[in-house]
Write a structure and sequence with these properties.
With 110 residues, the chain is an all-beta fold. The protein contains no helices and 11 strands.
């Protein structure tokens, strides 16, 4: 089974906030130690869209889950036919419209 990943954007302020979000401005990066294994910034992003959303204070919006095929990425290709990632410890970080995630996820790939 391949891992499903997604990002949630939350307004932690006291006023409504407008923010551009969506697949075109969302990036996932998987690392093993300091080595980048897979990053969506190297993928063909043709056809991906973004939109401006308005979040009320405390409101959170979850983006559609996406499946990592447990492979390395290379320029322009990020899926089938790439070298398989090895079992081990990984981290996942995200970026949405230039804002880096405060936290990163640690997990074991088997």
């Amino acid at each position: 089974m391949n891992p499903q990943v997604w990002v949630s954007v939350k307004n932690v302020g006291k006023a409504a906030c407008k923010f551009t979000a969506g697949p075109a401005v969302t990036f996932f990066t998987f690392k093993s130690g300091e080595e980048v294994i897979w990053t969506s910034s190297k993928c063909d992003r043709t056809g991906l869209t973004s939109q401006e959303i308005t979040l009320q204070p405390g409101e959170e919006q979850k983006q559609t889950p996406w499946e990592w095929k447990k492979v390395y990425s290379s320029n322009g290709t990020c899926g089938e036919g790439e070298v398989n990632a090895l079992p081990g410890a990984y981290t996942l970080s995200t970026e949405v419209n230039g804002v880096l995630s405060e936290n990163y996820l640690q997990f074991q790939l088997q």
